[in-house]
Amino acid sequence: MQLTPRTGARTFTRLLTGLLTGLALTTGALTAPAQAASPYERGPDPTDALLEASRGPFSVATQSVSSLVLGFGGGEIYYPTDTSQGTFGAIAISPGYTARWSSLDWLGPRIASHGFVVIGIETNTLYDQPASRGRQLLAALDYLVEDSSLTIRARIDPDRLAVAGHSMGGGGSLEAADDRPSLQAAVPIAPWNSDKSWPGIQVPTMIIGGESDSIAPVSTHSQLFYESIPSSAEKAYLELNGASHFFPQTTNTTMAKSMVAWLKRFVDDDTRYEQFLCPPPSGSAIEEYRHTCPSS
C-alpha cells in the first residue's frame, strides 16, 4: 500500500504507540514488586550509632528464674516493657565452663533493649559439657513459651526463638541448633566443642571468635565449625582482632553490634539490618569476616 503523508503519519503513530505499550508491559514484567516490610520489625530504622550504643530503643525490665526450675539451673530474664509492639522473639544464652551468667550479664539488657526477650541461664552444674548446655538452652526456651506461671509469656512469639553462648555454652548453642532446626538463629561466641563438624545445621548461624584465643583457638574450633555448616543455612564468621577467649566477659561493641544485627535479620526477618552484615563489616576491631550474605 502506498502511504500518503496523512496515512503515513497515522501508521507511524500506531507503530509508535504499540512500541511504547509493549515496552511498558515488558518493563512491568521485569520490575519486581516492592518488598513488604516484615511484620516483626520492631523499633526505628537502625543506624551505626543505635547499634553501637550501650542500649537500644526499648526500656527493659528483669525477672529472676528460680534454680528449682526443670531442665536448667535458673537464671535471669530481660524483656522490653513496651506492650504496644506485639510479640517479641526470644533468645537463650549460656555461660561457659565453670562460669555463671554474671560473666555475660551485660548482654541481657543490651540485646533485650533492641526488642527481644533474653533469658541468661545458669547451668545445672558449672562443669556441664556442650551437649548438656545445648539441652539446657532448649529447656530454657521451652520454659519461656510453655510455663503458664510466667507472666511475660504472652509477649513471646514461640516461633521466633534463638540460642547463643560462650565457650562450652557456644558449643552448646551449636548442639541446640543441630537438635532443633526450627530455631531462627544461633550465635556461638568463642565456642568450644570436641565435635568439629556440623553439616546438619540449617539454622542461620553467626560464629564469633577471638584471634588470640588460646583455649578454643579459632583454627581448631570456630573456623572448623563455620566451614562445616552448609552455606544453605546462612552463616557468618566474625573474628575479633587480638581478642582472647574471654572477650565476651566485658562489654564488646563490635560483637554486640553484629550479634544484634544477626538476631534482628533472622529472628525478626528484618531486612533493614542486612546493611550491617553484607557487605561485610570492617574496621580495626575485625581481623576477619566470612559470610554467605543474607538474602532477602
From TrEMBL:
GO cellular component term of the entry, any: periplasmic space
EC number: 3.1.1.101, 3.1.1.74
Reactions that this protein is recorded to catalyse: cutin + H2O = cutin monomers; (ethylene terephthalate)(n) + H2O = (ethylene terephthalate)(n-1) + 4-[(2-hydroxyethoxy)carbonyl]benzoate + H(+); a butanoate ester + H2O = an aliphatic alcohol + butanoate + H(+)
GO MF: cutinase activity
Location of the PET hydrolase/cutinase-like domain: 35-294
Cell compartments where the protein resides: Periplasm; Secreted
Annotated family: Belongs to the AB hydrolase superfamily.
Name under which the protein is recorded: Poly(ethylene terephthalate) hydrolase
Native source organism of the sequence: Nonomuraea aridisoli
Lineage, top ranks: Bacteria, Bacillati, Actinomycetota, Actinomycetes, Streptosporangiales
